[in-house]
Amino acid sequence: MEFQDVLRRRRMVRHFTDEPVADEIVEEILAAALRAPSAGYSQGYALLVLREPGDRARFWASQPPTEQGAWEPAVRAAIMRATVLVAVLASKDTYLDRYAQPDKGWTDRDESRWPVPYWYVDAGFLALLMLLASVDLGLGALLFGLIPEDIPAFRAEFGVPDGYDPIGCVAIGHEDPAAPRRDLRPRRRPAEELVHRGSW
Ligand SMILES: Cc1cc2nc3c(=O)[nH]c(=O)nc-3n(C[C@H](O)[C@H](O)[C@H](O)COP(=O)(O)O)c2cc1C
Fold it and tell me: To test the ligand 1 pocket, which listed residue (8, 143, 151) has its Cβ within 8 A of the most ligand atoms?
């Protein structure tokens, strides 16, 4: 698919069918994620891939529906049909260690040196590449955040080490052709409001 078409078609998909995704397609999406740039080439991230129905069920059980959750029950059920879940995790320590190396020299590991937490920036790149690769391969995908209170249950269920923070989870699968499409165009902020040229 042309890159411009991938960009145009990429939307967050919240209605999946339960049709499985072929192994090689999943591998292609994961490989795309690992092409992401990373500050200092730190690569302080990890992906937890859940494809077995039992593993996905354990994930969803660790993330029960919440009062303040934005998903209607039917939408949650349609998201849960996605046959691939990839949790994206960021490791701050990997960055602090990398930047304490001689070519960087921040041996005090002082976090105030960081303009923003690059470990989260980079993990976001992985997620975006998976979203784009999914579209390119004819699939749909959704990036969603974990509810902070449910992160300990997620960690415990899957043995995620303390130093790895889940920045979100990407659900990937075949989009339900009957899925409703949200029209976000009225809410789209004009480019002139967002892009400043020459000065703010
Ligand atoms: C960091 C991040 C977190 C998001 N978390 C959620 C989420 O928890 N649940 C959800 O339904 N959508 C989530 N979204 C999707 C956004 O709502 C969506 O990208 C936005 O409304 C624009 O729609 P589009 O991606 O279809 O163009 C998230 C997106 C990003 C980038």
Answer: 143
